[in-house]
């Protein structure tokens, strides 16, 4: 299956491969380049590739941006021990956009099937749909988390594009989406009916101010993701000059790096994509920030603890909290490996085995404290409604 996807990729340029000074990432990234065979994907490896597809995005020039990003990534220092890191090169636009989606979805599926973690550098954020289709191929129910100032829902009859892809994911059949979360939306960019729709679907949405108020609160949300999609225009223009929306407000660069590190730390996450960077507006700062976001993602992956869903929950400390005069018993688990917390949601057997990995919901110590005060945590309740 891995050899089949090699046909989709163009090798990395030789001048990038030559950025291999001792002690840098470039000195040991296994790169698909001229004269070097397509690398083998091993379990636990981080597999990077670019996608030069922007026909359905307002943000053009992705191929030029991919070159600049690699120049920065390859020169960063290597602190990651024996973590295997691969660079497969770029997927060029197909004859149609759907052809590109096919190449992306098959590539991500192959990487995950081999036990790797896919890192997509876009291209437009409509590639999130292609990323999602990979999990359909794997027959895996997934949680999707997006970092975006908008929800990118669109209407049923709209053509799929970088600003209107979520509706296609929600309505796609067969549907493998269990939960969607959006981080850092800005209320002045979102219609009230869109917020109401998210509530009706029991999806989790968090305003920019909530995210910035305490970035550590984001960790359990990101830890619940199988796939993370980041619209780079969610980062303010002053920190990210390649913000094609010219947004004065948004995340700070260090907050974006914290989010990608949380994603790397999550044993559940198997793919991440960074999209919509306007390289023509960049002075070099934006490429550096994307490279640093990737560095912190690698830092997280190299520090994974083999927690849930890999660890046996019987190894965790277990706490049972009775809520509302015994109407609900919420079971909390605390990992002794990482000090992270989960909540167990009652799981009906009629749901089938595909949903089992979602009945343990990441949470924080604060959620446990609130439960002790007879308050049902929001994430527990929303998951309970979806599993019921």
Question: What does the secondary structure layout of this molecule look like, with pairings?
Answer:
Blueprint: H1 2-5, E1 9-10, H2 14-17, E2 30-31, E3 46-51, H3 62-73, E4 85-91, H4 97-113, E5 117-121, H5 127-138, E6 142-147, H6 166-171, E7 177-185, H7 192-200, E8 204-207, H8 208-213, H9 218-223, E9 227-231, H10 253-265, E10 271-275, H11 285-302, E11 317-323, E12 328-334, E13 341-344, E14 360-363, H12 365-372, H13 378-387
Parallel strand pairs: 2-4, 3-4, 3-5, 5-10, 6-7, 6-9, 7-8, 9-10
Antiparallel strand pairs: 1-4, 11-12, 12-13, 13-14
Helix pairs in contact: 3-11, 4-5, 10-11
Question: What this model shows, in words?
Answer:
This protein is α/β, with parallel strands linked by helices and 388 residues long. It has two domains: 2-302, Ureohydrolase domain (Arginase, Chain A); 313-387, no CATH class. Helices cover 32% and strands 19% of the residues. It is built from 13 helices and 14 strands.
């Amino acid at each position: 299956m891995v050899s089949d996807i090699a046909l989709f990729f163009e090798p990395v340029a030789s001048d990038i491969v030559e950025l291999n000074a001792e002690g840098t990432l470039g000195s040991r990234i296994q790169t698909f380049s001229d004269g070097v065979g397509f690398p083998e994907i091993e379990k636990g490896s981080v597999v990077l590739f670019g996608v030069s597809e922007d026909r359905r995005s307002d943000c053009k020039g992705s191929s030029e941006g991919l070159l600049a990003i690699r120049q920065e990534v390859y020169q960063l220092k290597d602190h990651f021990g024996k973590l295997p890191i691969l660079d497969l090169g770029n997927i060029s636009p197909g004859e149609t956009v759907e052809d590109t989606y096919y190449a992306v979805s098959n590539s991500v599926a192959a990487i995950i099937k081999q036990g790797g973690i896919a890192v997509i550098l876009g291209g437009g954020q409509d590639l999130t749909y292609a990323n999602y289709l990979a999990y359909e191929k794997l027959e895996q129910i997934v949680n999707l988390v997006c970092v975006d100032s908008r929800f990118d829902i669109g209407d049923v009859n709209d053509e799929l594009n970088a600003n209107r892809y979520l509706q296609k994911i929600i309505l796609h059949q067969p549907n493998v989406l269990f939960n969607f979360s959006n981080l850092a939306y800005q209320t002045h960019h979102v219609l009230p009916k869109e917020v109401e729709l998210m509530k009706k679907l029991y999806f989790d949405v968090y305003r920019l101010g909530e995210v910035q108020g305490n970035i550590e609160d984001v960790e359990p949300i990101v830890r619940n993701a199988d796939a993370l999609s980041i619209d780079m225009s969610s980062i303010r223009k002053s920190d990210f000059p390649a913000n094609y929306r010219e947004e004065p407000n948004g995340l700070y660069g260090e907050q974006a790096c914290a989010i990608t590190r949380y994603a790397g730390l999550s044993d559940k996450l198997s793919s991440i994509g960074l999209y919509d960077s306007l390289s023509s507006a960049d002075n070099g700062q934006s490429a550096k920030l994307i490279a640093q976001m990737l560095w912190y993602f690698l830092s997280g992956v190299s520090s994974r603890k083999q927690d849930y869903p890999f660890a046996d929950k019987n190894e965790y400390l277990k706490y049972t909290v009775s809520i509302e005069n015994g109407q609900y018993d919420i079971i909390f688990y605390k990992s002794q490996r990482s000090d992270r917390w989960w909540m167990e949601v009652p799981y009906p057997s009629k749901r089938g085995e595909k949903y089992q990995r979602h009945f343990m919901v990441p949470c924080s110590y604060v959620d446990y404290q609130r439960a002790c005060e007879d308050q049902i945590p929001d994430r527990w309740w929303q998951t309970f409604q979806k599993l019921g």
